[in-house]
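QA checklist item 7 of 12: single-chain prediction sanity check.
[x] sequence parsed
[x] length recorded as 169
[x] structure emitted
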Amino acid sequence: MARRIEHRTSTPWDADRVHAALVDPAFLRDRLAALGGPGAELVEHRVDDGAVTVRLRHGIPPEEVPAAVRPFLGSGLKLERIETWHGDGPGRYSGTVRLDTSGLPGEIAGATAVQNLPAGGSELSVDGEVKVSIPLVGGKIEDIVAEQVRKLLAREADFALEWIAEHAG
């Protein structure tokens, strides 16, 4: 059974500014340098007909991987993250995110959005799920991975808020 992941962050900026930051190669590189772990890199950044696709590589060293997951990973966890974003009209962007893990059978996938709020500012959201296909222990690992992803999303949101504030023109 899959585990749900939900994350919401309110920002003081409009959706256009937040989206522009989220797909900016400089922002992505800075975020990876701060939070991406060993071997983190921006592998691909592509713009096609207004849609943006980014492929990121993250690394989590074995000592930061929860003990219940370590036997399946060996030398740590490597993640390939692919995000797509497109505009849905004034003040609204949406997309998808998928994380592929090396050494762990399963997937992490979801939908992303940033939209203007009626009172001003915007909301960034991620809704997804974690599925791990390991008999008997898959559910426990899903719980652990889902919690780690929620923590990462919170750290990434905090980083984005700080980065946008520093780079606001």
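[x] summary fact logged: The CA atoms of residues 116 and 122 lie 4 Å apart.
[ ] second reviewer sign-off
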